[in-house]
Write a structure and sequence with these properties.
By secondary structure, this protein is an all-beta fold. The protein has one domain (1-56). The protein is 0% helix and 40% strand. The protein has a 4-stranded antiparallel sheet, with no helix packed on it. Strand 2 and strand 3 form a beta hairpin. It starts with 15 loop residues before the first strand and ends in a 9-residue tail after the last strand. The relative contact order is 0.22.
Length: 63
């Protein structure tokens, strides 16, 4: 099954890749954030406590 990800409308060179996370009580949260596959672009969109934010840097976890 082929998966097609949406094109990044900011740079038009990458695609938006979904990222998942875990909530405070361990429940999985699917597609909590989407990031552009083009490292030079840096576009991201994420949901935190029901609020949508754009452009915040999404880094690697130290955990």
């Amino acid at each position: 099954m082929e998966k097609n990800f949406p094109e990044c409308l900011k740079c038009n060179n990458g695609v938006l890749l979904p990222l998942s996370d875990y909530g405070r009580e361990g429940a999985s949260i699917r597609y909590k954030a989407w990031v552009c596959s083009n490292p030079a672009c840096g576009f991201s969109i994420r949901i935190d406590n029901g609020e949508i934010s754009f452009g915040k840097t999404i880094g690697l976890s130290t955990k």
